[in-house]
Design goal:
This protein has about 290 residues and is an all-alpha fold. It contains 17 helices and 2 strands. It binds zinc ion. This is Ankyrin repeat domain 9.
Amino acid sequence: MPLDVGMYERRADYKSEKQCQRTSLAYYRAVRDLLPVWLLEDIRTTEAFHWEDEGRACAFSPSEALLYALVHDHQQYARHLLQRFAVHALAMPSASFRCCAHSSTPHVAVAVRYNRKNILKMMMDTLKDCADEGAKKLLLNHRGCAHAEGGKTALHLACDLARPECLLLLLGHGACPYVTDRAGDTPLDCLLQQISQSATDMRTKRVCLGYLVLFMPALRFRMRTELRENPALWSRLIGVQAVQWLSGQCPPSLFVQCMRNVTRSVPDEQLESLPDFLRPPDFRLHQS
Ligand SMILES: [Zn+2]
């Protein structure tokens, strides 16, 4: 019996660039429409392909699926991917999901950018179970490439965008507040710049400041000189006591000192259940 050439042509076409665009868009929309997890996994593992620049069709990895779940806040899907694939769901996605070769693994930064605190919490819980400390630190503290994220870490982004919940989650799970971006700024420098540039969300920014300094026993940051040289301006923005203490002229308030000890002694997983008075927007930088 002669081969049904037409059938084989159609099959070859199944992984063509055009067909990949079609199936990947359908998968993207299915995640956006929050379709059930089993259906999404069925589509991901059997039907949907994305096209890579070197000219090949690729199935979506769990890590690429998690990026879609993050963008569309599909929490059930994110939970499934993290439970089933653990840290593999946080692996580097293929080239078409990245800016360039210098891009960091994007999940943590994407969670902060879109303020997906619930999924970020799931991701932090997954990292907690990861035995590879080096990989964990890299995921938390890696700087983005110069083009897409200005060489910033997820902590810098949380400060730039004033996301207190994300900030606390990251700090509580070991993100380092002393890492500098490509401009040499720490997350605290970025936050102080945001505070001085615009009065929008000032209360939220102050909560971020409160969280950040709890995890920075050594106040190493560039803006310190600026605080010392313009005390009047900064006192208006963050309060006299905070300026004196951040610029090294007096010790932090008793409240901050106590909270630092509490933060150090509380296990990571209990940080989110801190008492109400520590929750946004009630963090106090100075004693009342
Ligand atoms: Zn780049």
